[in-house]
Model the fold of this input.
Amino acid sequence: MTKSCDLIIKGGTIVNHDGIGLGDVAITNGRIAAIGDVGGWSAAETVDARGLHILPGVIDSQVHFREPGLEHKEDLESGSRAAVMGGVTAVFEMPNTKPPTTTAALLADKVSRATGRMHCDFAFYVGATPDNADDLGAMEILPGASGVKMFMGSSTGNLLVERDGDVARVLASGRRRIAVHSEDETRMRERKAIADRGDVHDHPNWRDATTAVTATNRLLKLARAAGRRIHVLHVTTAEEIDILGANKDIATFEVTPQHLTIAAPDCYDHLGTLAQMNPPIRADEHRQALWAGIRAGIVDVLGSDHAPHTIAEKEAAYPGSPSGMPGVQTLVPLMLNHVHNGNLTLQRFVDLTSHGPNRVFGMAGKGRLAVGYDADLTIVDLRAQRRIDSSWLQSRCGWSPFEGDTVIGWPIGTFVRGHKVMWDGSLVTPSRGQAVRFQETL
Ligand code: DOR
Done:
C-alpha cells in the first residue's frame, strides 16, 4: 500500500548520526516520517535534492537581534531573514536589548513579537543581574526561554554581574545550563588606558587573554561550588581550551566562525573597528588552539554571536566604536568553506551545529535528523562557489566582515518544521517561526 506524506526530499546525501549516504526524507505534519528509500511513498510535493547534502537544521545558539529598542541595527524579522537565507533553522537570542530581557513580562513580550513573525524558530535568554538573581530559577523555565545569560564582563548594553558573590547568587538560582560571557570586569577597568590610546589594534591587548582566562577560572570555581552546569560563550584563548577541556563534566563551550577564520593583527589592518568584538579576535596562535579544540572534540557548539551595529556607529573613533559584527547569515558558508579546506569534516560541522546544541540545551524534538523529530533541514551544495555579496546580505546593519570573500559550499535550502522557508536564495515561506521547546521545561 502506498503511504502518503506532505513532502519528500528526494535523492540527496543525508548527513546525520548514522553517517553520510544517499537517501530520501519524507515529511508529514512538520515532522520527519521516514528516512532512506521512500520509493513507495506518495507526496503532495517533492523536492529534488540530487547533488545536494541534507543536514539536520543548523541551530545558532548565540545571536543579538536588537528588538526591542535597537531596531535601527536589526529586528526579529530582519535578523531571522538573515538566519534562514544563511541556512539557519533556529536561533537563541540574547538579552542585551533595550530594555534588557530581565523580567518574565519582557521575555513574554519577545516571544509574542517573534511568534509568526520570525522566519526561523527561536528561544530567548533571560539576562542575569544582581537585582533579579533570586528570580532567575523561575524565569529560566518559562515558555520560549533558552535559559539564563550572564555577562561577567561588560559589553554592549548594561547587563553585568561582576562580583563573585553576585555570580554565586546567579549560579545558585535555577538548574538549567547557564550561558556566560566570560571576561573579567576588574581587569578591564584597570587596563582601560590601553584602549584609550585610540588604536583598535589594542582591542586584544586591552581585553587580553588573561582577562578571559581569569573570568573563566573564577566561573569554574563558583560553578563547581554551586553544582551548576555552565556554557561558556565565544571562547577565544588557547588557555581556556585547556582549562575547559579539563572541566567537561560541568562545562560546555562555544566558538565562533569569525574567531576560527580571522586573526590579529591582520583583521584590524583590513577591517579596523569592523573587526572589533568582545571577546576580541586574537593572534593566530589562539585561532589555531580553537581549531585544536574542535579536532579534540571538546568544542560543543558553533555560535555566530551575530551582533549587528550600523556602519555609522562602527565609524566612531575606537574605543567609542561599539563591539560586535553580524554573522548569522555567514556561519554556514564560512564553515562549509572550512570543510572544503579540510579543517573539519562535514559530520563534525553537523555535530557542532545540530547535535551539539541538542546535547547542550536539550531541545525537544530538534537537533537530529531522525524519524519523529521536527523536519528542520539545512540543504547545502558543497561544490557551489559563491561570493558573499552585499545584495545577498539581509541584516539591517548592511555589512559583513566577509563581504567580497569567495567560499566553496553554500546553503541552498532551509526547511523549518517541513516548511520550505528558503530555496536557492529566495524567501519562499516566511513568518512561520515558533518557540523552541526544551526537555527540561516541557
Ligand atoms: O562584541 C560583542 N557584541 N560582544 C558581546 O558580548 C555583545 C555583542 C553586542 O551585543 O553587540
